Protein 1
Amino acid sequence: MACLGFDETELRLGLPGGGNDAEEAARSSGKRAFEDTIDLKLKLEQPAPAVAQKDEKDEEEEAAAAQNVVHAATPLLSTPAASVATGGGNMKRSPSLTSVNTAVLPDPEKPRAPKAQAVGWPPVRSFRKNIISVHSQKGKADDNSGDKSGTAAFVKVSMDGAPYLRKVDLRMYGSYQELSMALEKMFSSFTIGSCGSQGMTGMNESKLADLLSGSDYVPTYEDKDGDWMLVGDVPWEMFVESCKRLRIMKGSEAVGLGQSLYQQTSMMYCHLASSHS
Amino acid sequence: MIYFPEEVVEHIFSFLPSHSDRNTVSLVCKVWYEIERLSRRAVFVGNCYAVRPERVVRRFPKLCVLTVKGKPHFADFNLVPPDWGGYAAPWIEAAARGCVGLEELRMKRMVVSDESLELLARSFPRFKALVLISCEGFSTEGLADIASHCKLLRELDLQENDVEDRGPRWLSCFPDSCTSLVSLNFACIKGEVDSASLERLVAKSPNLRSLRLNRAVTVDTLSKILMRTPNLEDLGTGNFTNEFQTESYLRLTNALEKCKMLKSLSGFWDASPVCVPFIYPLCHQLTGLNLSYTPTLDYSDLTRMISRCVKLQRLWVLDCISDKGLQVVASSCKDLQELRVFPSDFYVAGYSAVTEEGLVAISSGCPKLSSLLYFCHQMTNDALITIAKNCPNFIRFRLCILEPRKPDAMTNQPLDEGFGAIVRECKGLRRLSISGLLTDKVFMYIGKYAKHLEMLSIAFAGDSDDGMMHVLNGCKNLRKLEIRDSPFGDGALLGNVAKYETMRSLWMSSCNVTLKGCEILASKMPMLNVEIMNELDGSSEMEENPGDFSKVEKLYVYRTTAGTRGDAPNFVKIL
């Protein structure tokens, strides 16, 4: 258990609620996540009401996740997610930009389109975006991974049920939490863990089994040796080095991966439970 | 009709400057078709799926220079899913079978495998030039094959490709006998580079005129290389941090002084402001400068450099330059023809130091400006009208206001009048990208005035089908139309179907076209491929609901003689 005392390995789960100060942190962390997900957001065709619901849920999750960030140790605070200023204003994503339907006709009388990012906007090539973003991340993060900051670490990401892959540059993120949020936005039906309103303390092995066997998704990755591992089991930097591709599996399938995966997951959740009690 | 001997006709054809001219003469009569095809050296294929590779090779057996483009332009912005297509292999294989005299291959937005590169390297004994732009699918091992086997290689130009790094071995694969290199660009290679190999390569390449290094190349190495290339005309520096030895500093200064032919500079990866003064002795002779990968330089660093570049014709910068900086450019660079200002902050509500004022200053100081790409956060109609009057010579005008549907920053009106002025004044306009709040009116102007427009990019604009109809009906020379997030539907799609046969392609994503509309288009126009990409795996859905009015997420329509392509992935449905 002692070996799991790394904040970096913590896979942040979406806790409900969160106070006002969490909201502000939510905006900043949300903003950063938007920047990271410029290329990643998968625009799923959803009816407008569902989208609105999704927005609320996202904000809740962001608020909760941000709360975790706020309480976390310094290394996480120095990541761009926390350090970016709030300038973003309304973070609520309007259906007109997140959904497929752009039937909303521009009306000069209405307030301008909310300041959310659309996929592939602004129209800047990935090559260029990587150079500029990596550079700004390098400037903000304190650690000296300077030598490798120029190299991207693109991996394919597939989600069970989604019709095609996306590609993600792992070096665009500083932590599992950032990656998790990016993936979440990318495949918007993806939920790492809706532990429900019981919160972390309610987590135990049987609930974990329910989680994994339910319709929730679990992120896994193939490492250099060709083994499939659960995302979050090694320190972030090590993960970036060894990850060759990502697969977001249906929970029910992940259980089939084997006991070790199960154990890793439960150890991870237990750690989270203990750190937040 | 006067009959000339074939040799004479062929000789006359050799003076025709463009592909389209040669295409035209080939249509005159059978004799001319035969003469033309047997003497054609360079072929340009704008859409790799418009024609089968075997057919091209069969028609032009003397093919020496082949250019092929693959994915639609919006693939650059990740709007086209991976594995969509655009494979180079069929082209290289067909050429390997049918025209072994191939000397140059240029590809853009295609998927090129290492196997294809190896086949390329081994199949064409006279191969001289490989240019790959925005391609992917290959690694440094493929480059090793090119280096090893292309004994006459003159040009290896890799621009913004996604190359898998499998080590620096490739650079040492050039045999000692290969001394013909004129142009080498490996700026997009992500990994390490073996300095000794690089220096050896440069030492044995007396004809080297263009060299673009990647980020891994240190100033120490650069200084050694430059000592050997006094005739260099185009340089992309490597890493330009301020951590290098005094020895290198002296060497660099000496070397740069000797490079009297150096006209174009780029790179400046991680450039620290301290390094900027090294470049000062060169500034007066520069015609091209690309500082757009260097967010570390601020307004004052940039202007100190650029104010000395009095002969500058092409400038690429980040918006850190600010409006003030652009005023300095406007007063110093009177010969400026091309300007690109890229965003340093991609967040829509973030900060940018450039506004409409910077662009107005440029337009009044640089009347020769003909090509523009400008990212900013705000624009006004007045500014655009002034710009149009100052610079009637625009051929390419691409304006990207970062916030979708943002109105005139002063009046809160749509920017219809501003863009209207651009198309009205700039009679030679060939390429246009519009942004900001725009109604159908802007399209009315475009259709009415933009008679030479060949490519139009539309995002978050328009009110109704009328907008798109104005463009389809009015722009006689339109070749490529790409639209995203705009309220154009089946009415517009089907309003002028014959138009699509005169165009290379149409892209529509997140618009209001439905499956039904696309099916109608496909049935009316058999010479078009109508490709649909939907987010959800819609193949079963589409079959179950033949009359479905569900919106199509992504639509790509192009004319073709090749029929349905066999390499489409399962998320692409070709109607």
Protein 2
Amino acid sequence: MAAGVLTGVRQVLRGPRLVSAVFSCHGQTFSSAAAAPDTGETKILNFPLTQPDYFRLSELFTLKDLFEARVHLGHKKGCRHRLMEPYLFGSRLDTDIIDLEQTAEHLQRALNFTAHVAYRGGIILFVSRRRQFGHLIETTARECGEYAHTRYWKGGLLTNASIQYSPGVRLPDLILFFSTLNNVFQQHVGIRDAAKMNIPTVGIVDSNCNPSLITYPVPGNDDTPVAMEMYCRLFKMTINRAKDKRRQMELLKGISASV
Amino acid sequence: MWICECGILQDVSLQCAKGCDVVFASCLSACRRANMAASGCRGVRSILWKYGSYGNNLFVSRSKMVPQLPLRQIYVASSLWKKNLAAAGPQKFTQEFIDKQVEEFEVGKRHLANMMGEDPETFTQEDIDRSIAYLFPSGLFEKRARPVMKHPEEIFPKQTAIQWDAEGRPFHFLFYTGKQSYYSLLHDVYEKILAIERHQDKMRNKGLFTSDTKQILLTGSRWLLKEEIEENLVENISVQDYMRLIQLMELLLSMPYCSLEEEFILKFRKQLEVQSSKYEIPALQYDPQGVAFSVADGRRKSAKASITLRDSGSGNITINGRNYLHYFPVLQNREQLMFPLLFVGMMGRFDIEGSVEGSGHSAQAGALRLAISRALLSFVSEGEVEKMRQAGLLTADPRIRERKKPGQEGARKKFTWKKR
């Protein structure tokens, strides 16, 4: 029975990208979970949005941590993007200050979503085109057991995947952008491609970035090493937590290992 | 417009109106014809049925069906049905097929050994080649067209193995970049640079930082070429990628403590073969009487000569068992023989015994002269050797007979030119 639930959820992630089905609260899922042995477990798999913080990720960071990591520092007034204005607290001596309360909310939502994707064994791709932090991000991805792409983005990597890679390739289920701009200060091609392929994205948007196509934008500083290290640490801890929880559930409840 | 996809065909929920059933059945049969596995259902899309008002609704139930449906069949060229062979790329072999071929090869090898009456256990590839050449003699000029029996790994082109596990998760963390081995190499190099910088900082903190540390010896080696790196990585890289890699390696080398990563760097250097353009001086040998002698060879055009130079002699020269005066009646040839000894000033010191064959008298004399010069090297000092080289005594004359060309009398001579 639980296996049926899982295969249903898996098809959701694998097959036609009906991402909305994961979020649907009306039980239009592929299972009749009525007679499930553990309702708590199946509940979190089928109705993830009923619990806002299943993995208790809000204890990973505080507002003070964000401030000390200089996440609130944006770019100068001249670089400001019009669509980022709602997220800005104000500007001080021409430097934009990002509203950390909004950032904390967005970050918590983003981490929660990442945790849920990792819990279901989704493929997470870390993307950034900042050469300063490329190595750090690749190392973080390797330590979580996920994937990274901090190099030149070739045109059809997502949209022409069966030719770029091999016919049966599985695309990422979530893309994390640690900086949404590329080296010429234009929006990263991956954001548009992910939107085309119905792949949800989480992105750290600075005050000069466009947050519109990103599913879970997180307004914050993407230039300072302290801030980037903090983000990497947070996402790594989230993913590891989710995977550990999954392994724990599999051992305890004997759910089949296939996600 | 109604297009069916392979995946949805299996689903029962697509039971449509009465007209649809016909289409559905024909689509199914079309699917089977059009080879579902390789080319997908592209062929099916060519059968497009236009419904009146029901064009957009996929899930039409029976109750809603209308008896009279205006059906218009759209005909498409049959070339759409055919599989696009060019687009498929080089033929792909499954792992099971390759394994079966390997099995058959091993069994066939044993049969062949039995046939030839040899031991199947110690039957090597050379034996196989020999046996096949014996059993299937072929007069074909093209060696690659002759019958061959080799291990399937050498015959079937290597294909990259599937790079993800049963759940579809790729094995390598940089898989989605497209060039996983190359970028992981860059990642490793950068990691090493960071490690050396940390080491430097530690040494600085302790106050032990020095710039004159052990340097890696790079003389006599070169960086691997782009092709060699492509071979190692088993994937193609561009020229810019290659240059970037070399840049990073140079950066690594420029750091003071680079000797920590010496063996990593040397993996990317190739030792150049020691190019000894200098002729090796023949060793001085001693015969039972204690007399020193040396042996050397020389060639000119197609004449081959071999000389034995014996010390404490009196200037006798014997060639092919005859005295040089008899063998070379022409003065010029005798001068050629004499010149090396004259040059080093050891005219009456040596006894020369030589054998020569091939070509004409002048070429034989030249071959002998070269052989004498080479033999003299072991009796002469370093400075003299350099002088001999500058005199041209040690250079083999590269001139050979030029071939005759068609449309001409000889190599250069042309037929009589006629104005009209």
